[in-house]
Amino acid sequence: MKVLIIAAGKGERLKPLIKDLPKPLTPLLGLSLIERVILTCRKTGFREFLVVVGFKSQMIKNKIGNGQKYKVNIGYIENNEWTKGNGISVLKAKDFLKEEFILLMADHIFDVKILEKIRDFCINKDECVLAIDKNPTRFIDIQEATKVKTEGDYIIDIGKNISDYDGLDCGIFKATPVLFEALEESVKKGAQTLTDGIRLLAKNKRMRYLEIEKDNFWIDIDTPSDLKKAEKILCKDLVKLTDGPISRFLNRPISIRISKFLVRTEVTPNFISFLSFGLSIISAWFFSLGDYLSNILAGVIAQLSSIIDGCDGEIARLKFKESKYGAWFDAVLDRYADALIIIGMTIGIYRFLMEPKILITGFLALTGSFMMSYTADKYDSIFRKKKVLPKVRLGRDVRLFLIMIGAFFNKIFLTLFILALFSNLEVARRLYIVKKKKEEFFS
């Protein structure tokens, strides 16, 4: 199935920010709007694209090319009548699309889950389907949005000015060539917008709808205010259900601010993983010295490494550079980092006290840390499936924060003891919880 992207507009209301750029090239957290649309589609499995261009079309072609750098194929359709309604832009693709296709706008940012659902939505050959939002968030400008009225499984009316509406148009379609027929008919009557063609289909009971879920995001970017809202939406989406309390309320607010700067550079997620690991090595070395000032520095650096450790995943998600290898690579470095910090703490205090209990406690803290990481996958999957926050989440963020607090109070042995005790108790608790759901995990 091909994806048709309408990218012919000028973006007059965004001019204070984008100046002479065409609207589809508006930058948003390290990528242009049209790049975000293409990469969202690629994440859903789409590889064939047609882009309708108009205003400063060559700039768009130079930016995204034939799609090779995104590992997709991109073709272009020129619309010399781009000043007219967007229905004209859609009509320009008539000769290129003879089967079902996805229709998107270059200035709409949306959740990949919406695209997955509309891709799998079954329609007849003489029908189209539109994603609609019946529970819009505060980020959506309802006055500017296109409204829809539904009845049963169909849209019966659509437009910006209808008063009796029960949903908003998300600008995400699965269409058939019947859309071109409707647009041609509406253009003959002097109506040139996509909405006009959709209204004709709606009157003939040919326009179905897909209601998006409450946690799915989308936004139509027309103004600088919309752009700021889109940035907030994307950053909010970086918070994970499985984030621990320290990560959620302390680390994420800081790491996201750092990531918002780094996405504008060429820094890679793997480099950030290395940077976090390097900070852990420095922290371990300071802990091994054993004096109070060194402990304080070590604790602060350990917490800083924990914050930076969140940036690699954030940058990967914002720039669509996520990979299973990258996640695994980061996890491996985290295990080494945890081991080095605990070993550094153990060496530092053992140099002064030389008591066997220190080595035993350090060993138990190290074992507990490893087992916490080893059991995290099965435990966290419970909350990913249920889409609820865990009531208890004593993860790496909590451990490193506790290490910093212990360093400030110069209670390194007590910190090791607490880590040893609570990490192993937490592992036992996770084993018990997963055991109750063993049929689900081990069948």
How would you explain this protein's 3D organization?
By secondary structure, the protein is of the alpha/beta class. The protein contains 16 helices and 13 strands. Strand 2 and strand 3 form a beta hairpin. Helix 11 runs antiparallel to helix 12. The longest helix has 31 residues. The relative contact order is 0.09.
The gist of it:
55% of the residues lie in helices and 14% in strands. The chain has helices at 15-18, 33-44, 57-64, 86-91, 112-119, 178-188, 194-203, 224-236, 245-262, 269-289, 292-318, 324-353, 356-386, 396-408, 412-436, 438-442, and strands spanning 2-7, 27-28, 31-32, 48-53, 73-78, 101-105, 108-110, 128-133, 147-151, 154-159, 167-175, 207-211, 218-220.
Characteristic key phrases:
single chain; 443 residues; alpha/beta; nine-stranded mixed sheet; two-stranded antiparallel sheet
Q: How far apart are the termini? A: 35 Å
Low-confidence stretches: none
Q: Mean of residue pLDDT?
A: 92
The helix tally amounts to 16
Helix/sheet category? alpha/beta
In N-to-C order, the SSE pattern is EHEEHEHEHEEHEEEEHHEEHHHHHHHHH
Large-scale geometry: elongated
Number of strands: 13
Write the layout of secondary structure elements.
Blueprint (H helix, E strand, L loop, with lengths): L1 E6 L7 H4 L8 E2 L2 E2 H12 L3 E6 L3 H8 L8 E6 L7 H6 L9 E5 L2 E3 L1 H8 L8 E6 L13 E5 L2 E6 L7 E9 L2 H11 L5 H10 L3 E5 L6 E3 L3 H13 L8 H18 L6 H21 L2 H27 L5 H30 L2 H31 L9 H13 L3 H25 L1 H5 L1
